[in-house]
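In response to reviewer comment 3 from the previous cycle, which asked for concrete evidence that the modeling workflow produces usable outputs, we include below a single protein chain processed end to end. The sequence was submitted unchanged, and the resulting structure tokens are shown without manual editing.
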Amino acid sequence: MTVIPADTRPTGYVIPSESEPRTSGGLQLDQALVQAKMQESAAVAALLADVFEDEQDGPEDLAESATAVP
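The workflow returned the following structure tokens.
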């Protein structure tokens, strides 16, 4: 079995200590914008549900009208 010594060079990543305060430099979400996008998504989903519901009813109606023609 060959063992290679660990590489002790710095990697560029620093692990903060427990005592260091965390900065809030992270991602901040605009809750009003998130809510607006959720409402837009619900409206589009309802519209698409109506479109696809109509397509499912379409072929059956065509088959009934084709058999009713003499």
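Helices lie at 31-68. We consider this sufficient to address the reviewer's concern, and the full set will be provided in the supplementary archive.
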